[in-house]
Predict the 3D structure of the following.
Amino acid sequence: MIRAMTILASLLVFPTFVYGQDILTVVGPDRSESFSLAELLSMQQTTLVTTNDYVDEATEFRGPSLRSVLEDMAVERNVTLKLVALNDFSSEVPAADAFDYNVILAVLRDGEPMSVREKGPIWVIYPMDEHPELQDEIYNDRLVWQLKTIFVE
Amino acid sequence: MAAQDYFRRIALRGRFVRATFLSLFMIAILFVFTVIYQLDERIQNIQVAEQSDPVWVASQLQFELLRLKNELGKFALGYGVETDIGFRLDIAWSRVSVLKQGSLPQVIETFDVNADVVRDLEATFRRIEPAIAGLVSDSLSIEQRRASVEEILRQLDGYDLSIRDFLVELAQAKSAVMADVRTGLLSLSHAIAYLGATVLILLAIFVFILLLDLSAAKQAENKMRKLADEASSAARMKTNFMSVISHELRTPLTSILGGLALLKFKLNNTLVDETTIKLLDVASRNGDRLLELINNILDAQALSESRVTVVQKPVDLNEVAASAVEDCEAYANRFGVTYRLTTATETVEVLTDRGRVSQILINLISNAAKFTPSGGSVDIRVLKVGKQARVEVIDEGIGIPHHLQGSIFSPFYQVNPGTTGATKSSGLGLSISKQLIDLLDGEIGFNSTQGQGSIFWIELPWISQD
């Protein structure tokens, strides 16, 4: 309850993204689908507590798993995803990552939505503490922040 | 002696070579550990250098700053959208926060680059933030907006250059670190090459020592074989010599003894000179002893070469004992000793070689007479003990000292060899008897108390009548 209120309060504080505005678009071969923050929050949430090169200490991230989003779009594991950020930076990621690991589209950091200044609104997070093999330069590049669009290629 | 010296020399040399080899090996292991430690260190360095490249993030910051200024310029010229300016500010700000969080500040510190510009830029962002938010307001005239944008751009002035300098410094520091890493890797590759060489050398030494050991072992083996060959051929020559001598002695001795017997028989009829008869007796007695000795040597020879065969037939031990006593009676008379034979009431039938058993018994019985004082007697008893047929020869002679009892069945063994002059023998009799009874699957043994006499016995399995 308190968390929900905090979220609501934060949403009011960060007017950049209106609660109901679409923040993520997934473009598949046949169709594309857009999600608002509210929609992403209403999906099955996964919580990861992990570190990476861009946080000072182990941090709690929460959001829908990339796998669930892909499964909704009937995306196979052998394709490549092109993750595009707000500043048009893009990174190519094998979809298999989402099936092999608990990769999440984090929308909450320590229970609060993330502003653009703090790598929000969506930050792709890998469970690096849980799987030491992910603590590698290759996976660092896949931690796309300010995620805007996922192209399924 | 020479062989011992030789082996000691080889052992010493081997020990020295092994110690050297071991020290080399220890040094090599230390070397390996050093190289592995260094490798670990180098890898850590590479990781630091590769980690979340600050040059890339800083260039992103520069890029986003330019885009922000571009958006501001467009707005000042009247065709930009004010919300895009806020968005560009947020994006540029996020690059500042990336440089300030996580591992990047540490990497920048390791590079020893002054990151004040990042802090200053954030302060400037904070200063211009209200002005940018104010651009959205509709109440501003175009002139006011332009003035506001100009003010904002003036605040951001100079950061192009300072961020470029920051970038250059970062890039230089990074390439310096990479150069270090390269040098380190190079020296490491040298170290690994040395390591390989060391391992090869150690391997060579190892093989060399192995070959050395092999050749030493071969030499030692050859030497030993030679010694063994020499020893066995010497022993063979000795026994051959004995055998030849014995054979060569027996033939003339038999003629001499035959001649003596004939002479004595003839003189007995014609001459009554007692001294002559006595001399003849002495001669024939000594001849007999010599013949016995030669026969014993030949027997011992045959036994040692396993040339003796036995023919086993049912024999009554009572008879064998009786005839052996009879054969020895004349001999015992010389010492003034009498025999008392006690045979078993029933036949004591054993499956054995009559001649060989007789030989053993004669040996025991004559020995007993030899060691019994004149006027004494020797008891011979044939009896059954359990499943065994047993012959006991009991004398009241000098007995065998306790400490010598263990070795009386050894060849050439004599009790008191020096002092029993009158009763001298080859010392082969008991040894031969022991070997014969072994061949016949029987047992021989004795009980003796020094000064009180001895009981010698043999046992053979008797044939059950049922």
